[in-house]
Amino acid sequence: MEPWNEDYYVELFEKIGFKPLTYYISTIMENMNPVQRGHLSKKIEKLKKFDYYKDITVKSAENEDLITILNKVYDLTIEAFKNNFLYSELDREIFLKMYMSYEDKIVKKFFKMLYLKEDELIGYVFGIPDYAELQYKEKVETMILKTIAISPKYNGKGMGYILIDELVKEAEHSGYKNVIYALMHEKNISKNIGSLLGDELRRYALFIKEL
C-alpha cells in the first residue's frame, strides 16, 4: 500500500534534526488512461521488431507452487538489486518466510514472470490490490505495481515494458481502473517508465539523522 502521512510530519522530523537523504515518487494511471496505454503499446510494437522478442514468454504464478517460484525470484532479486541504493540482501530463509506469510494476500495472476526460451527467468513484476481503498469505498479499484526486477544481462532491452504491459492488461481484464507505480527512486530507470505511463501522484523523502 502507498504510505500516507500528514503534511506537518515533514516539519516535525526537520525540527528534531532529520534531513532528506533521497527522494522517491509514485505515479498513477487513472481510468486506464488511453494516452498512457498508447505509450505502452508503442513501446511493445517497437520491441516486436527485435529477434529476441519471439523467445520471450510471460507466465503468471497461477497454478504454480508459490515456494518454488519464490526460490527462483529470490535468486533474480539478488542479482537485479545488488547495486541499488540502500539495498541489503536478505537470507533466503527470511525472504521466503516473509512472502509466504502473505500468501493469502498475494493475487497470483498479478505475479508475472518473464522467461527467455521457456526456462530462463530473466524478470518478474509483482502487483497487489490497494487494499487500503476498502477503508473508504466498497471495492478495490486500484492495483499497485510493487516490485519489478530484470536480470542485469537484459537491462536496456525493454523487458520491463513487456512485464508492465502484461500486468496492466491483467488488471484491466480483472476490472481494475487504476494502476499505481509505487515508490520509484528518483535516480532509478524505473522512474522513467513510471513517468511515461502515469501522472505523478506523490513524492516522498527518506530522512536521515546522524546519532
UniProtKB/TrEMBL annotation:
Gene3D superfamilies reported for this sequence: 3.40.630.30
Molecular functions per Gene Ontology: acyltransferase activity, transferring groups other than amino-acyl groups
Database matches in CDD domains: NAT_SF
Sequence ranges assigned to domain N-acetyltransferase in this UniProt record: 56-211
PROSITE patterns on file: GNAT
Name recorded for this polypeptide: N-acetyltransferase domain-containing protein
Species, as recorded: Leptotrichia hongkongensis
Classification lineage: Bacteria, Fusobacteriati, Fusobacteriota, Fusobacteriia, Fusobacteriales
